[in-house]
Specification:
mainly beta, two-stranded antiparallel sheet, 10 strands, globular
């Protein structure tokens, strides 16, 4: 279980999502690692819907920092702002493909 906390996505053991080796390359692995708060551990949550009115899908869950039942992307704060994706059994960062 992960929680969005500030710029970090943190698991119950205090580990954060981390782009390995601070490498902003296509298909760089994303792992859980000790927090040092480098750019390779900072993420934005981008919600897919852009409607400005009241959400019908749910409210902000303050315990986890996410809106309930709203699709979203997780975007790296590294210079290329790649998105998290899963390829096979690996979690990686990828250039958005639309």
């Amino acid at each position: 279980m992960f929680r969005y906390n500030g710029d970090n996505i943190v698991n119950e053991k205090g580990k954060v999502l981390d782009v390995t080796g601070n490498k902003d390359n296509e298909n760089s692995l994303v792992i859980a690692w000790n927090k040092h708060n480098g750019l390779n551990q900072q993420w934005d949550i981008i919600y897919c819907d852009t409607w400005k009115g009241w959400t019908k899908k749910g409210e902000l869950n303050k315990d986890f920092g996410f809106f309930v039942e709203r699709p979203f992307y997780i975007v790296s704060e590294l210079p290329q702002h790649r998105y998290i994706d899963v390829i096979g059994t690996n979690t990686v960062i990828k250039t958005p493909n639309g």
